[in-house]
Amino acid sequence: MSDLPALTRIAWLLVAALASVVVALLAFMLKRGSGTGRSEAVFVAGTAFAGCMALCLGVLAAGFGT
Fold first, then answer.
1. For residue 63, which of 8, 34, 37, 44 sits 20 to 30 Å off, Cα-Cα?
2. Do 56 and 27 form a contact (C-beta atoms < 8 A)?
3. 28 in Cβ contact with 42 (< 8 Å)
4. Chain-centre distance of CA 10, in angstroms?
């Protein structure tokens, strides 16, 4: 990603963060909808966010290089 302009790198990182937030919100809503407590749903959402962000960063690093 070092050969891309800084603004492009920031835009891709924001897209990755937004996708991770959407996945975390979906995980939270699904967990709460199944009847579990709020604290467990927040934990699952945080785990989903971290996993999705790691996956997105891995894809970006593989696609654009480091």
1. 44
2. no
3. yes
4. 15
* pLDDT tens digits for range 14-55: 999 999 999 999 999 999 999 999 999 999 999 999 999 999
Cβ pair 25, 45 in contact under 8 A: yes
Phi, psi angle pair for 4, to nearest 5°: -85, 150
**Residue 36 structure tokens:** 């579990």
The CA dihedral of 7, 10, 15, 18, to the nearest 10 degrees, is -130
Measured CA to CA, the distance from residue 50 to residue 24 in angstroms comes to 9
What are the phi and psi torsion angles at 50 (to 5°)? -65, -40
